Amino acid sequence: MTEPSRLIVGISGASGVVYGIRLLETLKSLPVEAHLVMTKAAELTLAHETDLKAAQVRALADVTYPIADVGAAISSGSFRTLGMVVAPCSVRSMSEIATGVTSNLLTRAADVTLKERRRLILMLRETPLHTGHLRSMLALSEMGAVIAPPVPGFYARPRNLEAMVDQTVGRVLDLFELDSGKVSRWGGGKTAKRLRQVD
């Protein structure tokens, strides 16, 4: 029997919880199981930045796990996944992952993703960055993680905030070879011509 494709989604307490929510919503239309773990701080951020309840966000995933359940399926390398996205990723979560000293299921699952040489995407939401942050980012990159801050691509001329979020989430899913159908792709042609006209 063929196992389903699975993607772990971690939502930490950084600002930008909309990225994790939109990622889960987008995965609904793709042939991938979403396995969600949220930190307690993420639930606090959710209350500040949206009108959603944590239960509503969990309902977007196929499988959810309590943050303290370090014995959950996603904490084991034998549980096969495509990898993991932490959206958004706080500096605290990033730092734990960088050191391998994990304190909860989100950072444990990320550590397992790295040790199994699966793709780990960290949508780091913090600025400005000091040298310690940059060193942690370098260490993670050397371990194989992809640091992907949610930086908007203005060449696509996003109409609104939702379009900007969709573009960023779509580009993250591209890293797993999953096409969301919502990415404005650069290919020369009309986009390049339009940009030349602006210049």
Structural overview:
With 199 residues, the protein is an alpha/beta fold. The protein has a single domain (6-198), classed as Rossmann fold. Helices cover 42% and strands 15% of the residues. The protein has eight helices and six strands; from the N terminus they run βαβααββααβαβαα. A six-stranded parallel beta sheet has the order 3-2-1-4-5-6. Strand 5, helix 6 (131-143) and strand 6 form a beta-alpha-beta unit. The protein is globular, with a radius of gyration of 17 Å. The N and C termini lie far apart (55 Å). The model has no long low-confidence stretch (mean pLDDT 93).
Q: C-alpha Rg, in Å?
A: 17 Å
Shape summary: globular
CATH class assignment? Alpha Beta
Distance between the termini: 55 Å
Give, in order, the helices and strands. EHEHHEEHHEHEHH
In brief:
The chain is of the alpha/beta class. Strand 5, helix 6 and strand 6 form a beta-alpha-beta unit.
Sequence-ordered SSE layout with sheet pairings:
Blueprint: E1 6-11, H1 17-27, E2 33-38, H2 40-49, H3 54-58, E3 63-65, E4 83-89, H4 91-99, H5 105-115, E5 119-124, H6 131-143, E6 146-147, H7 161-174, H8 189-198
Parallel strand pairs: 1-2, 1-4, 2-3, 4-5, 5-6
